[in-house]
Amino acid sequence: MGDPGTEPESGRRPPGGTPDPLTLFSFVLLAVLALLLLWPLLSGGHAPNPYLVGGLLLLRLGVQILRAQRDEKLKRPASWALDFLLIGLIFYTASNQPPG
Fold it and tell me: Which run of H or of E encompasses 66?
C-alpha cells in the first residue's frame, strides 16, 4: 500500500491536497519574480537585471518540464514554446542594452 494521502488507483494525491515540492518551488520562483518586478514600481528604484529575470524564468520553465515528466496532464508544449520565446527576447534585449 502507498502513502495514505494518495489515491490507490493512480498513486497521485487527490485535488485540494498540499502541492508537491516541485509545485511549491515553482510558486516560490513566481513570488520572487513578482517581488523583483514590483519593487522598482513601488519604491522608484532601478529595474532588476534582465539576466536575473530571464534566468529565473528559465529555471521555472525547467521546473515545469520536470513536473510534466511526472504527470502527463501538465505537458503543454505550446506554452513552453511561448516561454522560450519570451525568455529569448529578454536575453536579446539585455544583450543589446548599452553598458551603464
Answer: helix 50-70
